[in-house]
Sequence to fold (580 residues):
Amino acid sequence: MSENTAVAASTTMPRAAAARATARSGSRVRLGWLVPTIYIVFLMVPIYWLLTMSFKTTNEILGGLTLWPHKFTFANYQTIFTDPSWYMGYVNSIIYVTINTLISVVAALPAAYAFSRYRFLGDKHLFFWLLTNRMAPPAVFALPFFQLYSAIGLFDTHIAVALSHCLFNVPLAVWILEGFMSGVPKEIDETAYIDGYSWPRFFTKIFMPLIASGIGVTAFFCFMFSWVELLLAKTLTSVAAKPIAAAMTKTASASGYQVGLLAAAGVLTIIPGAIVIYFVRNYIAKGFALGRV
Amino acid sequence: MDKTWNNRAWFMVLPVLVLVAFNAIIPLMTVVNYSVQETFGDNVFLFHGVGFFQDVLTSERFHSALLRSLAFTAIILAIEIPLGVAIALAMPRKGIWVSVCLVLMALPLLIPWNVVGAIWNLFALPEIGLLGRTLNGIGFDYNYTRHPVDAWFTLVLMDVWHWTSLVVLLAYAGLSSIPDAYYQAAKIDGASRWAVFRFIQLPKMKRVLTIAVLLRFMDSFMIYTEPSVLTGGGPGNSTTVLSIDLVKIALGQFDLGPAAAMSIIYFLIILLLCWIFYTLMMRNEEQ
Fold:
């Protein structure tokens, strides 16, 4: 009897201590929310500023500082939605970003599998070389890319921009996917082979669902880095595949400095990103913890 | 993981190899070509040897741009890494607020870089921008288009606004991978907050932090679009970092020789730093 109470005491003691500790940490957390909140406010203020500017007339913006639009107007957005030279910019950007994400993920999947499961001649050096391309400065490649893609006749096409972004997106995709794949034990592969799965069937039916969050995170990052990149996209296009980023730079020169229009265009570029991140929010919270990034 | 030796894995790696090699090796060959050849137009090229390299390495302009890039990177790392880790430590671990926090924090990361530059360009305007007007109202004589210090301040603030979330997300991921049992054991042992951080959280975050430092180091060293849109190189050339200078020479002046030589030197510096980081990372993993 005394033994049981002793055991009970020893198990309740840590629990009591933990309970006290969480109560203590609870009061810590109560002040702890302040830091992320201040940070998020800091992040949102410039975006709020951009939003208000997009609803003001250019006169009001240039006239002085107003914290919210005194003369609310949709004119800026109207211009963007009705003028092809504006909305085609968005369409073009989305096209090449989607192409790039598809190519990067599809190419990276088998490669990541190879790096994760096999050793082969030069594998470490190959992996390192891939990583260095993620670190390739766009400034160095701008002019050579311009000449290369012009030489093969792909200048001013979506595929050109999509392919050029593969330079840094494919290594990133391989890197992230390899991290996730390494988390799946090899025993699963072996069991599948014993069960008679061919490699393609095993990969698509068994393996890919297991790393679904990894694929989500990878696709997110490929989308992100391709969507935000300006220098290469601007260098490789002129009219037909002009991305929104290049279209935006013209507001500074054409008819004066149309700040409201620029702001509206800017707000619209945030929306695809916000949508994508909303869809992968669960993957990010979960996938980050599992994988390498 | 126990990997099996299988050279046929090269077939799996082939698509990636083709895609990246096409984009990396061919342009680099072009750049090397240009760096050692002099042209007088009309597609006539003469071998020039290391002349351009010498010119670049001894030029005052290159040294200043390099110093600016290094200074910028140092400031950025000193601010963003501790700040990102601190915010990640303070973030809630469970509950609905996690998703909200993550989505809101990730928003600046998804804004096209020229829009980021444009936002801050307008936000920091001394007369009509919220930040600019506020700073001038408080009493600072703030004008980022005229004063180099203000330009640097705005540039650093913009980059902190833009990229700290990446460090936060990565650190948060590292923290999430620490099992609760560690924290409970620490609480039972009566460990102080600082001890918990130093002995439990920091070691587990080491790997993610190395990635974060590597990514931030490289990206801040290579930065082009944001400073270009924000200040275009700064009042005078006070914010002309290495990549801005390079693009000016390459795409602006079309000085192929010097641009190519500078590109190669720039790339070699990055490769060296990348190799150092990679070695450190691999050594960490082996431990």
